[in-house]
Design a protein that fits this description.
With 231 residues, the chain is of the alpha+beta class. The protein is 55% helix and 7% strand. The mean pLDDT is 92.
């Protein structure tokens, strides 16, 4: 077994990579990094990823962070064809765009509204809600304009793995996005056509939903960026 993934069980970027590994039918060792205990903040973990972020892929001693880069690497190296990451330049550019859009806008805004207030001392505000609506409207427009079944083509690509896990965060807190018809159709289609991949996402969603009801106590954590909620 040459691949090892350092992952957090409810982390959308980690879940995106796990979907890719499943879609490529790759055997790998899954190591759960305990976010609550701050295992990713240690100097030992920093040897694998100086950013101290999760996930990290280890391919025979080749360490790679950043989930987008991991997805691209896995699809290029291990893909039996190019459906997950098309080689046609314009189609690949759309996939890359969706990955960038998720990072810069879609997951960013959703995470700021959903995830940050669960785990750290942030609040959901009218502004954070407005940003979620902007992100949903953008994605809805992209889907309408391409007219494709999935985010970039009529087949799933690595971009769908990221976008699905971001959208899952909304479902975890019972956020109603049904008015965004193209997004809702895309999301429901993914669940129906890829139940084995959705099962990976659903596991993380259930954890987030539970944390929404009972936020974890991270008061012991000395986080370098996020304000820790003092319980």
């Amino acid at each position: 077994m040459s691949l090892t993934l350092y992952s957090v069980s409810d982390g959308p970027p980690s879940l995106a990579v796990r979907q890719c590994l499943k879609a490529l039918n790759l055997d790998y060792k899954l190591i759960n990094v305990d976010f609550g205990l701050g295992e990713h903040m240690t100097e030992e973990y920093a040897k694998k990823n100086p950013q101290k972020e999760i996930p990290v892929l280890d391919d025979r001693g080749f360490y790679l962070g950043e989930s987008n880069a991991i997805l691209q690497y896995l699809a290029d190296k291990y893909g039996q064809d190019d459906k997950l990451y098309p080689k046609d330049l314009q189609t690949r550019a759309i996939v890359n765009h969706r990955l960038c859009f998720n990072l810069s806008t879609y997951y960013r805004y959703i995470s700021e509204h959903v995830m940050a207030p669960i785990f750290f001392a942030y609040s959901r505000t009218p502004l954070s809600l407005k940003k979620v609506y902007i992100a949903l409207d953008n994605f809805n427009t992209y889907l309408q304009r391409t007219g494709t079944k999935y985010a970039a083509t009529d087949n799933i690509t690595i971009a769908d793995f990221q976008l699905v896990t971001a959208t899952m965060c909304l479902e975890a807190i019972n956020f109603d996005f049904s008015s965004y018809k193209a997004v809702s159709k895309w999301y429901d289609t993914y669940k129906k056509e890829y139940p084995d991949l959705w099962a990976i996402v659903e596991g993380g969603m259930k954890e987030i939903a539970e944390f929404e009801k009972n936020p974890p106590d991270l008061s012991h954590m000395d986080h370098p960026i996020h304000p820790v909620r003092k319980n």
